[in-house]
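User: Need the bound-state model for tryptophan:
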Amino acid sequence: MIVVVLTNTIVTPWEVKGNIDYDKLIKEFGVSKLDDKLLKKLESHTGELHHFLKRGVFFAHRDLEFALKEYEKGKNLFLYTGCGPSGPIHMGHAMIWMFTKWLQEKLDVELYFQFTDDEKFMLKKDRSYEDIQKCLYDNMLDVIALGFDPKKTHFLVDTKHANIMYPEAIKVAKKITFSTVKSVFGFKNDTNIGMIFFTSMQAVPAFLPSVIKKKKMACLIPHAIDQDPHFRISRDVIPKLGYPKPASIQSRFLPGLAGMAEEGKLSSSTGVAIYLTDDPKTVKNKINKHAFSGGRETVEEHRKLGGNPDIDVSYQWLSFFEEDEDKLTKIYDDYKSGKLLSGELKQILIDKLNLFLVDHQKKREEAKNRIDDFMFKY
Ligand code: TRP
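Assistant: Bound-state model below.
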């Protein structure tokens, strides 16, 4: 199974565990590192670089150069990303979509946003269909609240858009063998047959716009690196159907609050994720209680020896969510010198997140009347 990267480290679309060595992952997955040359090229179209690009949060890609070349040909490019609705949205999901929104705005292209309610229903043994539909609704509110442009954003819900997606999915499915999905995803004989088929559905939005518009359009997929196995398969199959290979731009995981050594990505199953629906008090309590600290045992020691921002989860989170470079550098230096205490560092993160979340939750309420504006119509 090629999805096991290191002993005790697992990266598959359905499980991420362990301390991830991203350089090793690049090699194992066969993706390319985002280099300065490519970033410059992207910047020439976006006018600036998102701090996720400057800081290596988005760090790998497949065929980004090709996607940009197509973009240069009269914007012959669309974006595609997605959400598997199985629980509340946390900051680890949101960061991918914040970046996607930025890309959409800067490149001024259409975005196809897939909700794989079929996937999560089939994956989670103990969850009912109705239960997943409730998550779907809740997750759509969060995606809308992040500010996507409804004129250029199209939601594809696997069970709702089956009549347009299924005819394409079977064309994909016909070209994928059981032995391929077994080796890529590690499926066993007791895996349900829905999951065995599922990757065909995730392939569809990567070429559906070409089908609809009857022209070969390039596709760029922003996603966290755990989704790469799906697109590794899609990239083999889609050209056989006569459409361009989808390109991707891939991110690291937001570390779990309880410490990077124990958890690979921020997982909702640990119970210490920050959800987009958490109120200010909950955020404060979670961070104070759970955020792994790089500080010293006592204030005296901390003042004398300084903290370690490199292992401090609050600092790591700020490196994702504090866009101001100077502010972040000052926090780093002050923490390291001992001027800034762990409690104070945590408070900076708490304030930063709550500022975003309170506003998000207002927009989320407003989103309740807007779902239909985002649904793909054909
Ligand atoms: N399978 C993804 C998940 O579980 C959802 C998804 C569907 C997706 N299409 C995508 C994610 C494209 C990134 C890009 O979350």
